[in-house]
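HUMAN: Mind sharing a backbone?

ASSISTANT:
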Amino acid sequence: MFKASFLWLVPAMAIILGFRWMMQPASIYNNYTSGRSWVKRSNDNGVVTLVVITPPPMDSLPTDIGSHKGNQGNDNEDDSGEDQKQPEQQPPSNTQVSKPSSPTPPATCNEETIDFSQESSLDQVNLSWCPHNTYIKDGAMHWRLTQECGTTVLYPKTLKYGKVEGRIKSAAGSGVVTAFLLIGPAPSDEIDFEWVGKSTDSVQSMYYVLAHAIDVNPQMHRAMNGSSAADMTSTYHNYALELKEDEVNWYLDGTKVRSIKNSPPTPFPSSANQVRMGIWDGTHTSGWAGAVDWSKGPFEASIQWLKFTPYC
């Protein structure tokens, strides 16, 4: 009798528990072994459903969860109250740490240097004008200007982009012009270093496009000897011209002294591709160079070496 009377409690308890379950707010029951979450939902009609939600994989969660603590105490203390030094954070193995760097130098092809201390070096250049006023002496090739003519020397190879450098001592004297330049086919683009012999402590930079001067006035550059300008007609200095697709640079003793950018519509000497050097009479430009006093001649400039560096 007791057993039979007890049996009626079973369905009653099930009804009560089910009713309480339906009345609870939606909740989540995590199944950690399967990686699923069961979410209990009820609608307006009292129908209860279980929705299975699969959580995202752990490696897709933000890695800085828990790192934004604000000013809520020192998280670097252990139970003893002493500060614990945290290990220095290292960048991930696939992270590249960038460092300040200098501009990457251009790739070069078939670089050549001519040493003019040897007589055979004359075979590596073209003596295109007044060849008998050219000779090798004291470790250098000399260019002489007489009333008859002055020397012009061409290096036969050409470049599209690159750098040419020479160690040069210019000539002194009013009207005497020493030149080291890159020049293209006529009508010529030019990138020039020129020395006017009446000003022995400076070199001028200038450039031309299609034989037209772009500079209103050449720029003047000096090599310093202590606190004073060096005499460029008595000592050798290194002069370099660099033509790149986007700029032209002039260097004096390894220091860039001038640069122009290829910025259309401003004309740019992009076809100046061959080395020309020598000495000439500037009397016909006496307002610039002065007039030559031939009684003080002959006049000489010289070059110790030429370095020719095409860019690939």
